[in-house]
Amino acid sequence: MNRQRVLDPPYRTALKPYGRALVELARQRPEIVCLTGDLTRQCEIDLFQAAFPERFIHAGMAEANMIGVAGALARQGLMPWVHSFGVFTTRRPLDQIVNAVAYPRLPVRLVGFMPGVSSPGGPSHQAIEDIALMRAIPGMMVIDVADATETAQVVAAMADVPGPVYLRLKRGEIPVIFPGDHRLSLDRAQVLEWRGAETGGGAHTSGGAGTGGGGLTTGGADTLGGAHTDGRADTGGGGHSAGGAHTLGGAQIAGRADTAGGGVSAGGGVSDGGAGISDGGWYSGTAPSSDVALLVSGMMVAPALAAARVLQAAGAVTVVVNIPVIKPLDTATVLAIARAAKAVVTAENHTIIGGLGSAVAETLAESGLGRPLRRIGLQDTFAEGARDAPYLFTKYGLSTQHIVDTAWSVLDRPGPTPRSPTLPADAGEYAPV
Predict the structure, then answer these.
(1) Who wins on pLDDT, 284 or 344?
(2) Which of the four pLDDT bands, split at 50, 70 and 90, describes residue 342?
(3) Which residues are CB-neighbours of 149 under 8 A, at least 6 positions away?
(4) What is the mean pLDDT of the chain?
(5) 423 and 384 Cβ atoms separated by less than 8 Å
(6) Of the four, 133, 272, 343, 430, which is 20 to 30 A from 304 by CA?
């Protein structure tokens, strides 16, 4: 089981991590060509156009034709990367994706920006069903990364995937949730953990360049409020340190138990986000037991981490699992986490039909594992237009508080539901809704 550390919010942000990573990869891979559907700057590929104008194709607002061109280029031994907003990359040219790309299993990379309700532009611009569409296509890999560090790494990681790939990306200022030593995996989901502010073994950015395969850098480590000291209990807010290091089914814990906000380890769980403490590398021990497991992807990772802290402080042992690859799903990790949890909650910036929640439900049902399951996402509805995305996340039940409410309800805990504090963010920072 892969465990990964996270940084503390509010998160620093990076500009154009995808565009920079694609340029870096293209320097090494001359077969890469870049296509745009009249959204060059908006998809960060103005950087590619400037660096490799002879390998850049402007297809205009003709997405179906653009997919056909990409399929033809792939047949000639090239690796086309196709860019637009998610709704125009998937829904509009669906037939061409099936027949010109997926059926012949060509190495075309489809990149869709502005997932779900991250766009305030209403149903015409909100890709709320793109994962469901791409999941249904045979042989299509579907990726939904969480932050700038994963974005910088996913480009090189997906280059050698045999067959088509769909990647959905947040547009604009991208949060840096993971430290520089984070390693994205296309095979394994990741149990997330926090230990307070981290130096992270390397620096990360606030609007700087992304480095291919190695996270982000600004030339110096960022401690985000001070480094964390291992080897002693951290009891901020009245946390309970249960007699030093706590082991769970053989799980390795460095130092003593670390809690925040009064969270208490109950039922054998570990009281640090429910994920325990480890060295952040590949881990093959027993899955951490928990009251509730939050299985999330993409833009829902940040609010899930915030919700987990609130739940943990209220005594509900919580595990957060980042699932960047929705197809093929890491069913082994999903089942291991679900078996060790009393309840499972999925959260996605997408309709609950056909996306991550459906994939997890199918996995649990086919294994015969009986666990209460709640799916957070758009509830079979189109979203409205709005002035900003945070309003939409709140209205359609994608906020931190909604995750807390859903988890508290499925656990049937007595007393009032814990409240999630509003986290302020300065210019250049990102805080979960």
Answers:
(1) 344
(2) very high
(3) 17, 176, 177, 178, 179, 180, 182, 184, 204, 215, 216
(4) 83
(5) no
(6) 133
For residue 175, which amino acid is it?
A: P
For residue 121, count CB atoms less than 10 angstroms from its CB and return exposed for 0-12, middle for 13-18, buried for 19 or more.
Answer: middle
Instruction: Identify which of 41, 266, 263 has the alpha carbon closest to the alpha carbon of residue 172.
Output: 41
User: What is the C-alpha to C-alpha distance for residues 189 and 115, in angstroms, rounded to an integer?
Assistant: 20
CA 416 to the chain's CA centroid = 30
pTM of the entire structure?
A: 0.81
Report the C-alpha dihedral over residues 360, 365, 369, 375, rounded to 10 degrees: 40
pLDDT higher than threshold 60 for residue 268: no
Residue 323 has φ and ψ, to the nearest 5°, of -115, 85
Q: Distance (Å, rounded) from C-alpha 116 to C-alpha 170? A: 9
pLDDT at 194: 66
Residue 231 CA to residue 179 CA, distance in Å, equals 20
Radius of gyration of the chain (CA): 21
pLDDT tens digits for 15-71? 999 999 999 999 999 999 999 999 999 999 999 999 999 999 999 999 999 999 999
